[in-house]
Amino acid sequence: MRLGQVIQVLSGHALNEFNHAREVEYGFETALLSDVLAHAKPHTTLIITEIVNPQVIRTAEMVDAVGVLFVKNKTPDAGTLRLANEVGIPLIVTRLGMFETCGKLYAAGVQPARSSE
């Protein structure tokens, strides 16, 4: 699935400029950024979160995430948005909650970034 399709499936919108054709294979929902550092798959993982501080951008940068998706219409402040632009992290927001967001992405073919084992 591509980032542009993620936006469509979730009735979301982009918060910054990015290539909507970037590929998303995995989704990683989290409230703990340390989990992302430990388990994310580089290059094709979309971080799904309510965390809107600069640490989520730094984490996405460290794991080479394809982008960050904010649920529940959560949006970062201007400084965090500026940081995302500086390091090239795509940002998307949806009004949907975490449960519905993950369900829709899974139904559309996005796989979990961490196994349940």
CATH fold topology: Udp-n-acetylmuramoylalanyl-d-glutamate--2,6- Diaminopimelate Ligase, Chain: A, domain 1
Number of helices: 5
* Spatial strand sequence of the major β-sheet: 1-5-4-3-2-6
- The CATH superfamily name is HprK N-terminal domain-like
CATH-level-2 architecture:
3-Layer(aba) Sandwich
What's the main sheet like?
A: 6 strands, mixed
Integer average pLDDT: 94
Summarize the structure.
By secondary structure, the chain is an alpha/beta fold. It has helices at residues 3-9, 33-39, 54-62, 78-87, 98-107; strands at residues 13-14, 26-30, 45-49, 67-70, 91-93, 111-112.
Structure description:
The protein has 117 residues and is α/β, with parallel strands linked by helices. It has a single domain, classed as HprK N-terminal domain-like (Udp-n-acetylmuramoylalanyl-d-glutamate--2,6- Diaminopimelate Ligase, Chain: A, domain 1). 37% of the residues lie in helices and 18% in strands. The protein is built from 5 helices and 6 strands; from the N terminus they run H-E-E-H-E-H-E-H-E-H-E. The protein has helices at 3-9, 33-39, 54-62, 78-87, 98-107; strands spanning 13-14, 26-30, 45-49, 67-70, 91-93, 111-112. A 6-stranded mixed β-sheet has the order 1-5-4-3-2-6, sandwiched between helices. Helix 2 (33-39) runs parallel beside helix 3 and helix 3 runs parallel beside helix 4. The longest helix has 10 residues, at 78-87. It is globular, with a radius of gyration of 12 Å. The protein starts with a helix and ends in a 5-residue tail after the last strand. The relative contact order is 0.25.
